[in-house]
Write a structure and sequence with these properties.
elongated; nine-stranded mixed β-sheet; 25% helix
């Protein structure tokens, strides 16, 4: 082993320990192949494969430690461990002495849930892709060094409840008091969070208690309205909590959201502030998001199935998937038509945004509030438009975009049209590629370079100066034009889109519990992390065969020129 090489650790705060039938044995998920908070991934097969066994050395002395503290005895022994499909899991038998017994009972009762592995890297490469963190690594071969239980989520309310439930935590408290000042940096971080948790007042209810109902969480969020003067003051309170100065008005995000690591500062955003951010998105008529068909994904689920109709033709008996109306002669019995229904399933993935905050900005609460409202909403808007409109939206863990829709009807360029150009004939042809009902609802989306050419067309109208037009947008053939910086340069497919937004669905989790804030620290900078679960999908699956024989669609791009 290269002694100068870095040893890595990974915390899995969402692990769900399951008790075995045997006494003092609990099963754990120690690690997965998903991207961690630091951006790294341990790929499937990295722990164990046909020609590599990174678990062999660990199994010779398979101890289960506490908070990576090698100065104290282990709290248990890993009696089985294996990797399957990128998931490292196994069973731990807890030791029988006071400290180990306290940790065992905390896990068994669900008051703490964290496990952390440390490993030595053997083979790895720089992560690639627009959504990966700078400096992130993909590990393809690693050697397991040690596994520890860790006090994450060390939620004050959760451990206060553990004390209130009669659990004796004196041994854990003694370790925390000592390690908070004398331990290694990572141990001090764990220990300080435990000291805070073990000295917190006992409350009857807890935001981290998974048995707490959704209604109670919402009621608690509602209580926070007005207690912070603005969003900037709330964020500063979160930052201060990271320094072990928790504000009593803060409340941890629900554990089911996977956003409760105290090292990441997971707190529920008061409903009033999350409302403001999302309202900014939905009411901005210069963004595509305000026009789409919106659905709410219910609490307790990350999926939503929306019923629809499979209309592929405007011929009689096909409209709305098979609805039929006609005059009939007296005494004639018309054969019934049954609509052909389809459904669209939304899977709400996490959209995560990061905002770097300087000390100067955090010191100015009023300007911090204005900055955050604008910055967060604008970044969410950019990424959602990118995945909803452009080729980036593949549907694999992302929204399925208009440009990748199977219902697309692409309009060809005109004869002998020069490259990198856009003509009024292009736009007129696009308009008539829409079904007639869609033309009354349609919106245009155009890249910045395409808008430079559109501005001189006779088909374009603009509101007069001082107009009361609510969106103040230019119009092509009477329909609003959204200029967006997510579409490609003029002449590239997708530089101009014509869309019936009623046939594109955007689904998200309810605002009251969907957003949470996290604070991480790199040097002296704070990083605010905002998470929102959402998804977007076209609601039609194929072009429509029109009555006149043409193929039309709710989504019309212009081909390459």
């Amino acid at each position: 082993m290269n002694k100068s090489a870095k040893i890595y650790t990974r915390l899995l705060a969402e692990t769900s320990p399951e008790a075995e039938a045997d006494d003092r044995v609990i099963r754990f998920t120690f690690s997965t192949d998903q991207e961690a908070l630091d951006g790294h991934r341990i790929l499937a097969g990295a722990w164990k494969s046909k020609d590599h066994d990174g678990l062999k050395d660990f199994k010779r002395n398979a101890i289960f430690g506490w908070a990576h503290d090698m100065t104290r005895p282990p709290i248990g022994r890993v009696i089985s461990i294996d990797e399957r499909n990128g998931v490292l899991s196994g069973a731990v038998k807890f030791a029988e002495y006071d400290f180990a017994d306290e940790i065992y009972r905390l896990f068994r009762k669900g008051f703490i849930r964290g496990a952390s592995v440390s490993w030595f890297p053997i083979a790895y490469k720089q992560a690639r892709g627009p959504d990966r963190e700078p400096g992130a690594l993909d590990f393809s071969r690693v050697r397991l060094l040690e596994i520890s239980a860790v006090p994450v989520p060390a939620d004050p309310n959760a451990l206060a409840e553990a004390r209130g439930a009669g659990l004796n935590l004196s041994a854990v408290s003694a370790w925390a008091q000592n390690a908070a000042t004398k331990g290694k940096p990572a141990q001090r971080q764990y220990a300080r969070s435990l000291v805070s948790a073990l000295t917190a007042p006992v409350r009857k209810t807890s935001m981290a208690n998974e048995a707490r109902t959704i209604e109670e969480r919402r009621a608690h969020a509602a209580e926070l309205r007005g207690t912070f003067q603005n969003f900037g003051e709330y964020v500063r309170a979160v930052v201060e909590a990271r320094h072990d100065r928790p504000d009593p008005r803060l409340s941890r995000a629900p554990t089911g959201a996977g956003e409760t690591s105290p090292t990441a500062g997971g707190f529920l955003v008061p409903e009033a502030f999350s409302d403001v951010i999302l309202t900014t998105l939905y009411e901005d008529r210069t963004s595509i998001l305000s026009y789409l068909q919106r659905f709410n994904i219910p609490e307790g689920s990350n999926t939503l199935r929306v019923p629809g109709v499979d209309e592929t033709s405007r011929a009689n008996g096909y409209r709305w998937g098979g609805v039929l109306a006609d005059f009939v002669d007296e005494g004639t019995v018309e054969a019934p038509e049954f609509p052909r229904y389809k459904s669209t399933q939304f899977a709400a993935e996490k959209l995560i945004g990061y905002v770097v905050l300087t000390n100067e900005l955090m010191a100015d609460v009023e300007n911090l509030d204005t900055f955050l409202r604008r910055a967060i909403a604008d970044e969410l808007r950019y990424k959602l438009e990118q995945y909803i409109l452009s080729s980036a939206g593949t549907g694999a863990g992302r929204p399925l975009s208009v440009l990748n829709s199977p219902a697309l009807v692409t309009v060809a360029k005109t004869s002998a049209q020069a490259s990198g150009t856009l003509t009024e004939l292009n736009l007129r042809t696009m308009l008539y590629a829409l079904p007639a009902p869609s033309r009354r609802r349609a919106i245009w989306a155009a890249s910045e370079s395409a808008m430079e050419l559109v501005g001189n067309f006779e088909a374009v109208t603009r509101p007069a100066s001082g107009s009361t037009n609510p969106d103040d947008l230019p119009r092509i053939k009477g329909r609003p034009v959204i200029e967006t910086d997510v579409l490609p340069a003029v002449g590239t497919p997708g530089d101009v889109l014509l869309i019936d937004p009623a046939w594109y669905g955007f689904a998200s989790k309810p605002m009251a519990s969907a957003l949470s804030a996290h604070v991480l620290f790199t040097s002296d900078q704070a990083v605010l992390r905002v998470t929102w679960r959402c998804d977007g999908r076209p609601l039609v699956s194929a072009p429509i065969a029109a009555t006149d024989g043409a193929s039309r669609s709710a989504f019309v791009p212009l081909a390459a020129r």
